[in-house]
Amino acid sequence: MQLNYELIAFDLDGTLLDSVPDLTLAAQKTLAALGFPSVAEEQVRDYVGNGADILIARALSQNIEIDPSITESTKKEARKLFDHYYAKGGHALSHLYPGVRETLYKLHEMGLKLALVTNKPSEFVPEILKQHQIEHFFIDCLGGDAFAEKKPNPVGLHWLMTQHNITPQKMLMVGDSKNDILAAKNAGCLSFGLTYGYNHGEPISLSNPDFVADNISELIGVVAACTKLEQHLF
After folding, report:
1. What is the pLDDT of residues 146-193, one digit of tens each?
2. How many CA atoms lie within 13 A of 54 on its CB side?
3. Catalytic residue ranges
4. In angstroms, what CA-CA distances link 129 with 16, 41, 141?
5. What are the structural domains, with CATH classification, of the chain?
6. How far apart, in whole angstroms, are the C-alpha atoms of residue 179 and residue 174?
7. Which of 16, 85, 147, 161 fits a disulfide with 155 by CB distance 3.0 to 4.6 angstroms?
8. Residues sharing a CB contact under 8 Å with residue 53, sequence separation 6 or more, in sequence order
9. In 10 A of CB 4, how many CB atoms?
10. Considering the entire predicted model, what is its pTM?
11. pLDDT tens digits along 42-61
12. Bridge partners for 173 per DSSP
């Protein structure tokens, strides 16, 4: 049995990057343009995690449960406006969480393959990674529109396993929401859940990740301990 990891898949929003301030501003401008009541940042923190379509539909609804009376045409118009305002904002209010860059650097130096699997629209991902100087750490970046289904569907994780010829036991999924943890379970790999970020107001522990941490830097210890265990066994 081999225990050490070869590839670590990361979520983006709420895991590596706190993007809610920019998402909130774009949502507020969208709602104002359409004549809908505004939303607060704390509301948006609960709405994030299922992709931009769901986020803006929740903002229109003022609730995590989408109002069925909101028409599809309104939701489509809102999504176009949201993308426009989000791009125009230049992600100026977003920032990496503590320890992110250092952790990615250390894992990269340890020889691990790092990939990004996010429900965020693909068009925004390269600019954000470059802006925060972490784009060079990732061998693959899969946005929310890379496949027909988003997390918790495991299609992105399955693609990574096929692409890099690895088994589920060789991959670890790192995220802040139940969608990340469920995607890992559905793919048959272990998960590392972070207590900060966005999880619809629920503790990440309720999703039963294999590891739980308050800071992403704790990931280094998990990977190192696994490697040491393998060396001891063999």
Report:
1. 999 999 999 999 999 999 999 999 999 999 999 999 999 999 999 999
2. 16
3. 11
4. 10, 23, 10
5. 7-18+95-233 (3.40.50.1000), 20-88 (1.10.150.240)
6. 11
7. 147
8. 75, 79
9. 16
10. 0.92
11. 999 999 988 999 999 999 99
12. 9, 191
Q: Could you give the CA distance from residue 136 to residue 93 in angstroms, rounded to a whole number?
A: 22
Q: Give dist(CA 7, CA 116) in Å, integer.
A: 11
CA distance 38 to 36: 6
As a whole number of angstroms, the distance between CA 128 and CA 43 comes to: 23
**Tens digits of residue pLDDT in 195-226:** 999 998 899 999 999 999 999 999 999 999 87
- Detail the residues annotated as belonging to a binding site for Mg(2+): 11, 13, 176
Q: Amino acid identity of 233?
A: L
Determine the length of the chain: 234
SS (H, E, C) the chain: CCCCCCEEEECCECCCEECHHHHHHHHHHHHHHHCCCCCCHHHHHHHCCCCHHHHHHHHHHCCCCCCCCCCHHHHHHHHHHHHHHHHHCCCCCCEECCCHHHHHHHHHHCCCEEEEECCCCHHHHHHHHHHCCCHHHCCEEECCCCCCCCCCCCHHHHHHHHHHCCCHHHEEEEECCHHHHHHHHHHCCEEEEECCCCCCCCCHHHHCCCEEECCCCHHHHHHHHHHHHHHHHC
Structure tokens that stand for 96 in this block: 């990496």
Q: Which residue has the tokens 């393959």?
A: 113
**Cα gap 122→208, rounded to integer Å:** 28
